[in-house]
Request: fold
Amino acid sequence: MAKIRVVIAKPGLDGHDRGAKVIARALRDAGMEVIYTGLRQTPQQIVTAALQEDADVIGLSILSGAHNHICPEVVRLLREKGLNDVLVVLGGIIPDTDLPGLAAMGITGVFRPGTRMQEIIDFVSQRARSRADVV
Amino acid sequence: MKTATDGSAAGKARWEEHTVAPTLKTSAERAREFTTISGRPIDRLYAAEDLAGLDYARDVNDPGGFPYTRGIHPTGYRGKLWTMRQFSGFGTPQETNARYKHLLAAGGTGLSVAFDLPTLMGRDPDHELSRGEVGKCGVSIASLADMETLFEGISLADITTSMTINSPASMIFAMYLVVAEKQGANWKTISGTIQNDILKEFIAQKEYIYPPRPSMRLITDVFAFCAREVPKWNTISVSGYHIREAGATALQELAFTLRDGVEYVQYGVEAGLNVDDFVPRISFFFNAHSDFFEEIAKYRAARKIWANVMKDRFGAVDERSWKLRFHSQTAGVSLTAQQPHNNVVRTALQALSAVLGGTQSLHTNSLDEALALPTAEAATLALRTQQIIAHETGVRNVVDPFGGSYFVERLTLDMERCALEYFDTIDRMGGMVEAIERGFPQREVSESAYRFQQAVERKEKIIVGVNDFVVDERTAVPTLYIDEAAAARQTEHLRQLRQARDNGRVRRALDELKRTAEGHGNTMAPLLEGARAYATVGEMCDALRDVWGEYTETPTI
Reply:
């Protein structure tokens, strides 16, 4: 089976990359192919990276409260490029009130502080694998 | 310290053999190895023999005596309590000004400004990269006009203000000085702190703009300027806090922070400054994390290392250059979104370790900070936590109560020794700037972060409410929600400002700033003129971007 390909990205101005790097490493150690974009990526850069890397999954790490601005833009650009089947997951400080809106735009995996790495690995491998199986 | 005369050098071994071993046969210990939260192994017991090589006068000494292991003040908190300085800022300058007045009315004794990400990154609220970020993580400050609103009704002559700002530290500091001047406060007597610590940005928090070397010049320019003009200002707060939050162990926090401090002193000396003219205004900022004794040992070791290094490596002769003063903040990273009320307890214990370690000022986190920026109620409770420690527990009555503890003294010595080993490694690389360029401290921190997460996953480290003692229902606490209204207001204010100000004066100030940056003059003079002309943070930072370029790091996992 081909490895699941994951782009881990830090959009926005925030530089707190501990979570992004820990998760990137956990997914890699779980056998996935992980590309970490580094800091301060625009939605455009993230979607371009996903296209170039033939990503199955985009993992966004946002701790600054800018998710309501960034996530819709990433989803819109993905659709524009025809990448409708790329799984988008989000990690960070996300208030309860924002969860329904995020789910409605297709971001079903939202991982907040205290989430076990294994839970994220399981979620990504199940969702991304079912997508890969269809293709 | 003297070892006991009954031959206790053999005492611990004998105790292990005759007393511990039989106990272990019938009831085993809970783990094979016991370690601190940083993974440092801890013995079952510490005794006089563990301090066999310790020389009290050389290694510890009385409070107020070199190398200040027991504290820089002879009377500890019997003279002056620590400053209760709550870090705060969100939304517009008006909203944050109201929060400051609330905190001061509740008995806070200093201000500490949290800026939003656009301000921290030197971008104006109307910049494309600021979208969605204005006023979210702190207060939005674009120009002197915002700074005037922020401190409206607060006398800068009478209060000390700490400002957490790094790449644009000089720009914000220039604005603060102009506000003080307009209020009629004297630069010679006002006091406060700018964080101004770029090295830990490269290592951990990553809010850098310019490459390391021009960034270091901005900092030494502030050292030189303040030595002449604002002599009571703390020109830098060399910060381990963010390094620790990014995943470092207590030891790495200690070693990298103090080695950063050494780097600043080295650059100051190379810029032609006399050590004793600027080192007394260097202050530090540490994390108050959860492992109680390890934290106390960390603070004690920090004072000792700094005193020795300033004296021996730099030949400082003014005792104020030897004394390490520090602010501390409880560990944000230890807060949990699960069962958030538990965070009150964590914060209280962490704060207690900072007090027992002799902190000069302290910020206690609020219970809701794994969820959002704190509400006024949560921030008040955090302040009350400090007041209870100060006024009810009695810990302020005595200086360095853990001095002489076999365990704490041993741990202090061990942390000092291991930190100095890191110093050697970094010195061999050519210094901290070079080590950062090679990614050395960054890798060390990432590695520790991953190791800790694995330990949590394996339940070798327990986080109550997260990987043990878990309950199903989420506890709802009220949280502060910052909408996009702040961004709209700040953008509109900025539009009006750009119409109302003398744009010719702004242009001339920015041109002069560029010329100074291209040459060797002190950047503070053109920045002060820029601030007076109502040039924005973004405009002043852009002028320097034009000259120095921007730094980008190579992403590594």
Observations:
- DSSP finds five helices and five strands in chain A.
- The mean pLDDT of chain A is 92.
- Chain A touches chain B at residues 12-18, 21-22, 24-26, 28, 34, 36-40, 42, 64-70, 93, 95-97, 112-114, 116-118 (CB under 8 Å).
- Chain A has one domain: 5-129.
